[in-house]
TrEMBL record:
Domain of life of the source: Bacteria
SUPFAM superfamilies attached to this UniProt entry: EAL domain-like, HD-domain/PDEase-like
A family per Pfam: EAL
The entry's keywords: Hydrolase
Protein name as annotated: Signal transduction protein, diguanylate phosphoesterase and phosphohydrolase domains
Protein's UniProt keywords contain Lipid biosynthesis: no
Keyword Hydrolase annotated: yes
Domain HDOD: 199-386
Ranges where the EAL domain occurs: 1-205
GO molecular function: hydrolase activity
PANTHER family, per database record: CYCLIC DI-GMP PHOSPHODIESTERASE CDGJ (PTHR33525:SF4), PTHR33525
Amino acid sequence: MDIFVARQPVFTAQKKLWGYELLFRLGFKNAFPDIDGDVATSNVLANTFFSFEIKEILGNKPGLINFTKELILQKTPLLFPQQHFIIEVLENIEPDHEILLALKEFHEKGFKIALDDFVYHEKFTPMMEMCDIIKFDLMATPLETLTGIVKDIRSNYSITLLAEKVETYEEFELAKEMGFDLFQGYFFSRPEILSKKEISSSQITKLKLINEVGKKELDIKKIESLIKKDVSVSFKLLKFINSAYFARPTPINTIKDAITYLGMEELRKFINIIAVSDLSESKPNELIRSSVIRARLCEQFGTVFKTHFTTEELFTLGLFSVMDAMLDIKMKDVLKNITFSEKIKDGLLGKDKEFKKILKIVVSLERGEWDNNFYTLIAGKSIEKKLPQFYLDAIQMVNSFLS
């Protein structure tokens, strides 16, 4: 059984990562897997989730999973460890007697329950009395219509309110003011300030380091000297080179040996990633992690697509594709401070059709948007089976770089 998973981050009001919503598919033709009432099938599904290293995907964070009416009535959530998963009840599930009995059992056994795309109505009162989280879809129910509802829920229940499909920084700020606790959407990957903003001196220093590793011929001694002068980069390099990602039998103890072991291309990746993470200290950590996952996925797609970019160039493009959001300035102004080739600049500015295609596919993977025509075209082909491993490999890579 081939399973693919995408994860969408959920943030606190302080823009700290709270957890993920996990989206599962059996290939790209299905929605949530079509499971009959056979208990054995549910067991296969559960076992497959765990063989796919879901704990690694979640880290120590909770995961929200959509459960259909059929899966709730089959008691499928009981197959999962309650400390890792939150049962997300879909919006089309009515609070009939059987559903309420199942939810009561989950609640009594310590499971947390979330109501998805909630529409406030008194018939849902029994559900609300057992739930821990209510999710409001801001596309379906705009914030201006929720003021009274939010106040009423706050007055009568101890429930965490989650605003999903938060598309802009303004929506994020307004939802915070209204009393929402958690936030899900794409606001964090866009610039928060659209007006011109200057780059700080410390950020310029990091950009100079990026420029140094961007040269065709690397000056290893100069790079080694720059790394040694930065305690943070030195520490992160040695931590990374001795991580489980490389599975080295003996540790590496010097910057020089670490650089030699990595090689030129891996050194470029490392410096770019660490510099990017330092450039975005005021941003959600997930934005940094997302940029690394995007970079690795772009690189991997370079092995299956015919493109005029090298895989190394695709890694760079993916990594820097969110730089405008990290620095809160327009991409064209970011590129004034980095010595990239015209080919890379065109890709980052959206002028290159090949990279636009690859980036669109990668972004749809990030967001669990399976209606991209690409997935219809690859159905049943070998590349479809590669994508879950591509994604897991990217998560493993970011865990090694940024853990």
